[in-house]
Amino acid sequence: MLKVANISFGYTSTEVIKNISFKANKGDYIAIIGESGSGKSTLLEIIYGLLHIEKGTVSWNDEKLLGPNFSLIPGEDFMKYLPQDFDLMPYTTVEENIGKYISSQDKNKEKRIKELLKVVDMIEFSQTKVKNLSGGQKQRVAIAKVMAKEPDVLLLDEPFSHIDNFRKNKLRRDLFKYLKSKNILCIVATHDTTDALSFADKILVIRNGKLITNKAPEALYTNPKSAYIASFFDEINKIPLSEIDSNDISKKSVLWYPNQIKLTKKEGIKATVIASYFKGSYYLIEAVLNKTILFFEHPEKLEINQQVFLEFIKKATN
Ligand code: ADP
Ligand code: MG
After folding, report:
1. Which atom of ligand 1 is nearest to the CA of 35?
2. Are 63 and 114 part of one and the same domain?
3. Which residue has the higher pLDDT, 301 or 67?
4. Most informative mutation of 14, 15, 16, 156 for ligand 1 (most atoms within 8 A of CB)
5. What atom in ligand 1 is closest to the CA of residue 44?
6. Most CB within 10 Å of its CB: which of 197, 220, 250, 252?
7. Whose CA is nearest to atom 12 of ligand 1?
């Protein structure tokens, strides 16, 4: 088990990681989400042992990791870390880049390389020099490279940032299936929540260096607690209750996802359409209540200035 206990860290006197604690088990997939600058990369570097922490501890199977002040080579053996700016050897082939991390005594070396290239869908490029690959292809080779030694813990920083959507979904499915099958603990920093929602066992949300929540994806989505958290998943609406119920004097606002607001034929809450955005399987409609702009999903395009009645299906959170 990986245990992160009460860690704080600052590059200068200002702390950018503030008293973070969490635990993760072998085979888990933990997604760390947060806006850029919130501390995701710093947290991964602390766990890997690149940054020295004065406050708090990181331990693996009850053994405390000592960090960079105590080891000559930075990083832990049982862990692999893929930084945001991954580095590969440009003038050698894809196969050589990965093979470098597998012992030449290993009789299964070739088989292993093939297996890894299959996970990242790069078999056909095994003999291609890295410098001739696209950004997304390089990123896939970099992912295969960090898996070569079959670590116990894998830390990936924005691993799909250069990969186009067309390939991303298959890669995510194949990669996380593979990591589960090998019982590898994987911690991924991402600002793309689709990385997190479908696959993660737990989602850690950080804001300004603080861990603000640590929950399973379904629990986090259905009860997001704040607009900051909800906004990772959807175009969240924060609507004052007084806009929905004219008798309400509480001054409270409620969060609603666009798929929780529907058009109704009966008298409901009146809104005026501002715009319709085509989203493929639906339209995202922008409309205004009395004063508040909101977004909801609808199967068809609506006319600008059209008056509609809305019903609010399920309360998201207070
Ligand atoms: P994220 O990965 O979530 O975008 P980072 O961990 O990179 O966030 O950054 C967290 C904070 O630490 C930011 O305010 C950033 O400016 C600062 N920071 C990151 N790296 C350094 C560094 N090497 N020196 C000084 N400040 C840094
Ligand atoms: Mg980062």
Report:
1. 3
2. yes
3. 301
4. 16
5. 6
6. 220
7. 16
User: pLDDT by residue (tens digit) across 82-133?
Assistant: 998 888 999 999 999 999 999 889 999 999 999 999 999 999 999 999 999 9
Instruction: Please give the C-alpha separations between residue 296 and each of 31, 242, 246, in angstroms, as whole numbers.
Output: 28, 19, 21
Mean pLDDT of the chain: 92
Other beta carbons less than 10 A from residue 176's beta carbon = 18
Same domain, 288 and 143: no
Specify if 232 maps to a domain.
no
Strands 210-215 and 55-60: unpaired
Ligand 1 cavity residues, CB under 6 Å: 11, 16, 34, 36-42
**Centre of ligand 1 from the C-alpha of residue 133, in Å:** 29
Distance CA 30, CA 187 (A): 5
State which residues form the domain around 274.
Answer: 237-317
Q: Which ligand is nearest to the CA of 20?
A: 1
**Do residues 159 and 266 both lie within one domain?**
no
Q: Supply the CATH number for residue 87's domain.
A: 3.40.50.300
CA-nearest of 238, 279, 231 to 256 is: 238
- Residue length, the chain? 318
Q: How far apart are the first and last CA of the chain?
A: 35
Same domain, 144 and 243: no
Q: What is the pLDDT of residue 73?
A: 75
Domain-terminating residue out of 201, 224, 247: 224
Residue 255 lies in a domain: yes
Specify whether 115 is located in the same domain as 243.
Answer: no
Residue 106 and residue 251 in one domain: no
Q: Whose CA is nearest to atom 15 of ligand 1?
A: 37
Confidence at residue 318, expressed as pLDDT on a 0 to 100 scale: 46
Total domain count, the chain: 2
What whole-number distance in Å separates Cα of residue 116 and Cα of residue 125?
12
